[in-house]
Amino acid sequence: MPLSVATRRKVGNTALELPVFGFGAAHLGELYSRVDEESSQATLEAAWNTGIRYYDTAPWYGRGLSEHRLGGFLRTRHRDGFFLTTKVGRTLHRPADPKSFDRSPWAGGLNFDVRFDYSHDGIMRSYEGALQRLALDTVDALVIHDLDIAYHGAEVQLAHEKALVSSGMKALEELKRSGDIKAFGMGINTNVALEKTATQVQLDFCLVAMPYTLLDQQSLTTGMAECLKRGVSVIIGAPFASGILVTGSSGAANYGYAKATPEVQAKVRGMEAVCRAHNVALPAAALQFLLAHPAVVSVIPGGAKPEEVVQNVASLAAPIPAGFWFDLKAQGLIHPEAPVPA
After folding, report:
1. Are 268 and 6 a contacting pair, CB within 8 Å?
2. Residue 282 needs a FRET pair 20 to 30 A away by CA distance; which of 127, 213, 232, 318 works?
3. Cα 136 from Cα 39, distance rounded (Å)
4. pLDDT tens string 276-298
5. Which of 36, 54, 55, 56 is catalytic?
């Protein structure tokens, strides 16, 4: 039977079951462009009205703005009626000079500086600050955010990893044991982090932003296989590879949060040709492909406009013939061993 936004899958060995389709709220933090309050609320209304009940955010998204907007919307709904995840590892602070503060890479967002802190106290402070911004007293799961050498450099990365292993994990375990949260995971942006960093601690899930998409299955036999072996579930946080799998190969084609290279654009053009031959929309293929992997429990595309959310939900149920997946493999456009929808 086709999947729907109401279908749920179990997260690791926990009691948490998440809908297979959620809403990633990074765009509400004004990722690529400013989003006015009316559009933000209309987008969240559209998500709710299409049946979406799983929402993911982070203190980093818009330097607090995404949590404020999402919490302002969800606090008017019954708490048992939705699932919510946010992230830890950063704390927000008043900048030394608010008038000259640079909010980049956010187009807008709020005037708060960030500090990385993966210690016990840092994670607890990050969690408590998130609850206050969300105006909610519980979240379902917490995600260790951006513990990545690309952010920190090798020496600082090692120090953060030591802080997490020696004390930060104790905070997450305490929160789970007390029932404050049902699960905890780690946000992953690279294949190396999925293979090396995520395996240093015991997790319930990984929130994978780029290493496994319709465009890249390099991690299929490494990081993703290790998740499956260890019973670690996967939530896909960037199903459209940060843009190109929904906008297509032409125009403002973003891949990996930057302009797509000619090589990536050429690969997408090949996929677009197969899509035309089978009358399949590329965004539908991108979403449905991911949910065929046995480790994946949910995909959480974002959106800054109501129509984007509505289209994403429609893509989940769009019919895709088996021949489409066969042709992608035959032309070397996806990994020959990649699981595909039945």
Report:
1. no
2. 232
3. 22
4. 999 999 999 999 999 999 999 99
5. 56
Spatial distance between the Cα atoms of 286 and 267, rounded to a whole number of angstroms: 14
- From 10, 36, 55, 61, the catalytic residue: 61
**Rounded Cα gap, residues 104 and 106, in angstroms:** 4
Q: What pLDDT digit, counting tens, does each position of 77-123 carry?
A: 999 999 999 999 999 999 999 999 999 999 999 999 999 999 999 99
168 and 112 Cβ atoms separated by less than 8 Å: no
Question: CATH second-level architecture of 19-241+295-330?
Answer: Alpha-Beta Barrel (3.20)
Rg (CA), the chain: 19
pLDDT of residue 1: 57
Could you tell me the residue ranges of all domains in the chain? Answer: 19-241+295-330
Whether the predicted model's global pTM rises above the 0.70 cut? yes
| Whole-Å CA distances, 66 to 24, 26, 52, 79, 131 | 10, 7, 17, 18, 13
**Residue 18 pLDDT more than 70?**
yes
Alpha helices in the chain (DSSP H): 37-49, 65-74, 120-134, 149-152, 154-163, 169-178, 191-192, 223-230, 244-247, 262-278, 282-290, 306-317, 322-330
Rounded to the nearest integer, the mean pLDDT of the chain is 96
- Distance (Å, whole) CA 300 – CA 129: 23
Cis peptide before 341 (omega within 30 of 0): no
32 is catalytic: no
Q: Is 204 a catalytic residue?
A: no
Q: Running DSSP on this structure, what letter comes out for residue 103?
A: -
Residues 18, 297: contact at Cβ < 8 Å?
yes
**98 cis-preceded (ω within 30 degrees of 0):** no
Do the Cβ atoms of 237 and 247 come closer than 8 Å? no
Count CB-CB contacts under 10 A for residue 15: 9
C-beta atoms surrounding 321 within 10 Å: 11
Query: Which residue has 């990893």 as its token pair?
Result: 161
One of 36, 55, 80, 87 is an active-site residue; which one? Answer: 87
| pLDDT digit string, tens, across residues 211-229 | 999 999 999 999 999 999 9
